Amino acid sequence: MDEYVPPLNATSTPPHNTTNHGNGTHKPFSAFDGCEMHVEAIFFDLAVQSINVIVGIPANLLVIAILIHNRKEPSTSDIFIGCLAFMDLYFGVMTPLGFCNLFVWNSKAVWASLKFSYGVKDTSGPLFLSCICLDRFVAVLFPIQFGQLKHIKYRLVLTILVFCLTFAYSTAKMMGGFPNFEKVFTGEILATFTWMVACNTSILWALKKSRGAGKDEMHPMKKKAFKMVLSILYIIVLNYLPLVALFPFEDHYLPYVFRCYVQPAGFAFLNISSTIQPLVYLLRLEKVPFLPDSCIKKFSSSKNSKVAPAQNPPI
């Protein structure tokens, strides 16, 4: 493989979710910034992001519409789900700009805005999912305390905190020039992944043990909750495990290998969550408002012949 020559423009912005490295020497701006000869993983990430545009944007719009439709009877996690859908929608809308900038505009200003959107995706997704896991964890394992903490003010505080952290991280990512900035994301993803896996595993264990004495079958509602949490755990592993497995070993890769191959490929698994997360929410609904029953039945795993009134899943 060709020897790596570090990118020379410290002020330019690397492709996709990566953070720039450079020695300050000026050269003409390139949206690929040092990966012009190693674009395979970048194109893979772009292909994945295309799914977000085609499927993810409509799905997230539908999730937001359903949450507004059901605002009179919200679940405790709705504020987190709505914010997550909005952030994923924003990230999906920015994707066409990325395509245009790579192949047509080649603009630093556009790359700066794209870097901000990648920072939003890096931070808001894991943090809002962690909030959802926390809400579910307290509800299942500490139901009495959960009843005392149902007021929306507690969730508003968490939401504002996540927005502040997201804005700070995204701004720093957009500006660039911070040494070892990737390690901030690596630490974040390791912490949130560990929390979400431990949280959901604890919930599954509690639900498994909660079946009545002498009963072989779990209560239908608890069985439904068990399957729901298990499916979310699968998604967490699918979207975050590749990053957890690859990113902590950054120092063991050649710089261009990590930057042009490992990072884009790893982020592709994170980016596709903008489509997977809203679809999982929609498929757990017994009926989706604004859509014909036949449409949701085609994709839903529900075997019920009767369709219940629309309601939010206990996410």
Q: Key features?
A:
315 residues, mainly alpha, Rhopdopsin 7-helix transmembrane proteins, globular, disordered N terminus
A few lines on this structure:
By secondary structure, the chain is mainly alpha-helical. The protein is built from ten helices and no strands.
Question: What's the SSE blueprint?
Answer:
Elements (H helix, E strand, L loop, with lengths): L39 H30 L8 H28 L2 H34 L1 H6 L3 H24 L6 H28 L10 H27 L8 H17 L1 H12 L8 H7 L16
Main location: membrane
Protein name: G-protein coupled receptors family 1 profile domain-containing protein
GO cellular component, one term: plasma membrane
- Return the CATH topology: Rhopdopsin 7-helix transmembrane proteins
Q: How confident overall, as mean pLDDT?
A: 82
In the predicted model, the low-confidence regions spanning at least 5 consecutive residues are 1-14, 301-311
Second-tier CATH architecture? Up-down Bundle
Distance from N terminus to C terminus (CA atoms, Å) equals 47 Å
Number of domains: 1
Largest sheet features: none
- CATH homology group: Rhodopsin 7-helix transmembrane proteins
Number of strands: 0
Tally of contiguous helical segments = 10
Please state the structural category.
Answer: mainly alpha
CATH C-level name: Mainly Alpha
Order of helices and strands: HHHHHHHHHH
Q: What spatial form do the alpha-carbon principal axes imply?
A: globular
Q: Into which percentage range does the β-strand content fall?
A: under 5%
